[in-house]
Amino acid sequence: MTRVMKIDPINPEKKLLREAAKVLREGNLVAFPTETVYGLGADGYNPKAVLKVFKAKGRPSDNPLILHVNSLRMFEDVVKDPPNLVYDLISKVWPGPLTVVLRKSEKVPHEVTAGLNTVAVRCPGHPVALGLIEELGKPIAAPSANLSGRPSPTNAKHVLQDLGGRIELLLDGGETFFGVESTVLDMTTDPPTLLRPGPIAVEDIEKILGIRVTIPEFARGLSYAGEARSPGVKYRHYSPKKPMVLIEISDYSDLRRYADIVLGFAKKLVSSGKSVIILASDETAAYYEGFRVVVLGPRMNIYRIAKNLFNALRIADALPGDVIVAEAYEEIGVGLAIMNRLRKASSEIIRF
Q1: How far apart (Å, rounded) are the C-alpha atoms in residues 208 and 141?
Q2: I need a labelling partner for 219 at 20 to 30 A (CA). Which of 34, 149, 187, 306 fits?
Q3: How far is the C-alpha of 350 from the C-alpha of 273, rounded, in Å?
Q4: Is the pTM of this model over 0.85?
């Protein structure tokens, strides 16, 4: 059985953090909240413990993990020759939902990096995560605390749905803050390359650095065939068990017209004998009368959409129905992260 300990997300109890750190020190796994999603943590310097993460998640062995640190000293212990540009960036956004990819130091086990000479590192902006790293005294290797390929967990219930009985301990700190995983930036390239969009928008990174960032097609959630230099790049992720169809258009300014397109497609599925669940925004939900609708939030508050996305996918999966039809969003700011996740979660993408 997985033991669950409720913990204060703002002022985490030291006794509970010490207990969780002891579990990690013994080579076992602890799920814990970060500001993005729940992470599945192992002692980042213990190769055998790191391998348990892959086994518990059913994660491909060539999909690297992120090392979570809580200080500049710990960061410099795990990377080699970071450029000054990195310090300009992390001084502005850490602790926070940004992961940087750099050359790894000799201290980092190859199990963490899937054998690559680079390592993904971040300093999480959540009191529980920071406190747990402090108690352990070492970096924590942690991907999202879900079965590989499933929607990432934004609360303790999601973690138990996927990993109950597979891990030793879960720190239940309630809902996470952002609801999508960290932005990942490869800083071994010139200019830096966006590997995964997240809560820190690429537009904001470019303002801080004063340079343009390369945005490859795979960062938009499209196919990728190279080596996985960070999580969320190579494999299909975030997927509900039901097939999901994403409906995209070139212009989202006329939402009534867009809703008519989505509705027309859903009705075609119904006429073919399928029952349909629609993932909608506040502005369009009323147009889908007669369908089961899961509402993500208002388009005018795109961070709310992001926070609710993975929970909405799990809700839609649990409802009676054969197919999920999902609305799309503009790729501006965190909208790029939302579209990355929706595309990777979809079994089919249709563009009108």
Answers
A1: 27
A2: 34
A3: 20
A4: yes
